# Entry
Amino acid sequence: MSKTATVCRITAPAIRSRKGGTPLVCLTAYTTPMARMLDDAVDLMLVGDSLGMVLYGMDSTLGVTLDMMIAHGQAVMRGSKRACVIVDMPFGTTQESPEAAFRNCARVMQETGCAGIKLEGGREMAETVHFLTQRGIPVMGHTGLRPQMVNTLGGYRSRGHGEREAKAILDDSIAIAEAGAFCVVLEGMVEDLAKEITARVDIPTIGIGASSVCDGQILVTEDMTGLFGQNVPKFVQVFGDVGGESQRAIDAYANAVRRREFPSQKNVYKPKQGTAKPRLAQIAG
Ligand code: KIV
# Structure
């Protein structure tokens, strides 16, 4: 038997088994270089459909396509060896029927090699989550603030302020967990609701704007590194100013080119030692 190095990744069941344990560390990744940087630091990388807004400058995530998610999923898989990679299902690819959802999710899993998919939705998606998980597709749920519902919800405000809304989100989260999801993202909701959901479901809750009561946390990497500007939502902490540093580097390059300080002699190719200097005037004829 050949001794090829086997890639040993964190699996969806391994993530599920972390309920109530050390907090799960999750971040978004869209590209190979970012996946390389995250791989040793995180348990789970999400190829989120937020890439539509963060990378492509869209106003919402609704214009993101399955082909875009597959291309970025492949890029993230190429840059990682260890973390559990989950690919987000874009708007319109899971809502129609469990069968249509299965076809689209199976395509994502086959073409990227990811460990599972994420879909937004509550009770109305429970049947689909059951259908998928029974057929070999691990599902990460996503309740609370659901960016794909921006047009029906009328914006991106935080959720669960009134009793009725909080109860609906609690019921949504329980339905997704009972349908077989291996974990659930709780986005943009009041702390008490996140606490109640975390206590009531037997799968890890992964918070984004849902406080530290969750079993894990996720952020958009570009937000927490300052790559998407400093104007981030209240729930984000900017842990480093990579965006500012990149801007300084770009400005320094532009100035150096204008002043003819770049390229300098150390960036210039010289003839190899021992080779005759080409007589360019003669070559040119
Ligand atoms: O699309 C995304 O990046 C997400 C996370 C913010 C949870 O859904």
Notes: The two ends are 62 Å apart (CA to CA). The chain has a mean pLDDT of 94.
